[in-house]
Each structure stands twice: as C-alpha cells, then as structure tokens.
Amino acid sequence: MERFVFVIGLFFLLTGFNDEKPLVFPSVKNDSFKRGEVIEFKMNYGIFTVGRGAARIDKEYHKMNDRYCFKVDVTGKTVGMVDWVADVNDRWGAYIDTAALVPHQFYRQIREGRYKKDEWTYFDHQNKRIEVKTLNNKTGKLKPSKFYDSPGYVRDMIGGFLYLRVMDFSKLKPKDTVTVTGFFEDEFYKLKILYVGKKTVRVKFGKVRVLHFKPLMPKNKMFDGENSIDAYFSDDRNRIPVKIDAEMFIGSAGVELTNYSGLKHPLNIVK
Q1: Which of 139, 155, 182, 261 would disulfide-bridge 159, Cβ 3.0–4.6 Å?
Q2: What is residue 126's predicted lDDT score, i.e. its pLDDT?
Q3: Are 95 and 102 spatial neighbours (Cβ–Cβ below 8 Å)?
Q4: pLDDT tens digits for 238-260?
Q5: CA distance 120 to 46
C-alpha cells in the first residue's frame, strides 16, 4: 500500500499571512485550493479495487514556528479480500506554510501488517536544516535524531504537489518539463515532470478535462521505466489529481478520483 500512497504523493503535490519574515518565506500565489477541501479516491491493481483513501485539508488554520499553516492529511487503507491479507492503514500528513507553500513538519504513520513506522520530519528553512525523528517500536521511545543540510525552501511530497497545483501552466507546450525539489526518506530529489498536453478522462462521475503529465522516474525497483506513470490533473483552477496510471514491475496499478467536496472552483466536467 505504501507504493500506492507514493503514487498519490506524486500528485499528491497560497496566499495570505505573508507579513512574517518576508525575506525568509517568499509568498506564493494560490488560487487552487482552500481549507476544507476533501478528495476521495480508490486504488486499483489490474481490474481489482485494492484500497481507498482521502486527502483532506483541515477546516482550520494551524500555527507552527509562528507561521500559519494548512494541515493536510492523506490516508490509504486496503479493502475487501486484500485487507484480510495485507491489512494496510497508512497516514501521511504535513503542516504547509500558507504563504510560501513549504512544509514545517511532515509525518508518517505506517501500519502494514506487522510492520509499523512512526516518523516526523522538521524543516528549518531559515537555517537550511532538516531533522528526522523516528519512534523505536520496541521501546516506545524516539531514536536519536538524524540531521541533514538542505537547500533553501525544500519541500516534502505533500508540499511539493500542492506547489505543483499552483504553478502557471498557461505557457507550457507539450514536451516542456517542470521540476519540483523535495526531500523524502533521507534523500533529496529533483523530480522532473513532463507536460504531455490536454485530454479528457472518464471517472466515476463523468468525463473530466485534464492536463496530462509524466513524472520522469529515476531507475528503481518499483516502476517499470522512466515513463511508467501518467498523471492527470483537472484542467481548471483547482488542479486536483483526477487519475493516475502506473506500470509497475508487478503489474498495472492506479489511483482514481471517486468523490470530492470543498473545492475552491467548479470541477471541469464535460457535459
């Protein structure tokens, strides 16, 4: 299931309150999402639905490091017969600066059968440093922290794809690329994303006009080649992830939007 949540995280990617430390936190214009947004999805393996999940932006602002933040939670859980075997119930979350769209904290609570992982990542943007804390499941106490020197304004996966949603794609042409810099699992990455063009895809509630992207994946043991993922974001001011298709070494998998509420703008559904 964590690999499915990773795929979500690949999409899964703000104005106001910009009077605090303006030299440290540059303001990023946001007209794509707001508090209270909920996106629900299903995860498929082949023709079977193997999981369901949701991405939620809390209805209230939160404060961290004296900055106003969006609190975002992404959950994923196995369903049906798969749940009897895998029993996955994962939760990822982040506190994202409302002005700069950078994370102050990112956390994971992984529950996959007997495997458990509780991890908190703290971003000190002013001093360009990251601290990662992990819980020792045997003792119930935190392990010694790990520290990393980081580039300026580095993002976690959630913050990275929220930032992707607010980018100006109006001047993009097919085969153009954009880059998102991030930090995940002890590594920094620069993910290049190829813009393919516009199209229409069908989901549960109808046809939706979308922007088609291909994250250019580095060589890995999960996905089958550089162009193994197709991501579709709504072609409107929301830019919500509508559908993701992935070719993996173990077969075809995907994520599909099933329900939504609290969007900032109407979804671009074909009538």
Answers
A1: 155
A2: 87
A3: no
A4: 999 999 988 754 557 788 999 99
A5: 33
Sign of the dihedral defined by the CA atoms of residues 140, 78, 107, 190, in that order: positive
Distance (Å, rounded) from C-alpha 64 to C-alpha 71? 10
List C-alpha distances in Å: 160 to 58, 177, 202: 18, 15, 26
From 105, 184, 188, 196, select the one nearest 152 (Cα to Cα). 188
pTM, two decimal places: 0.84
Mean pLDDT to the nearest integer, 81-91: 74
- Collapsed DSSP state (helix, strand, coil) of residue 165: helix
Give the DSSP H/E element, type plus range, for residue 159: helix 157-166
Lowest mean pLDDT among 13-17, 91-95, 157-161: 13-17
Residue pair 69/57 in contact (Cβ under 8 Å)? The answer is: no
User: What string of DSSP letters covers 53-77?
Assistant: EEEEE-SS-EEETTEEEEEEEEEEE
| Residue-averaged pLDDT of the chain | 84
Q: Which residues contact 219 (CB under 8 A, 6 or more apart)?
A: 226
pLDDT of residue 195: 93
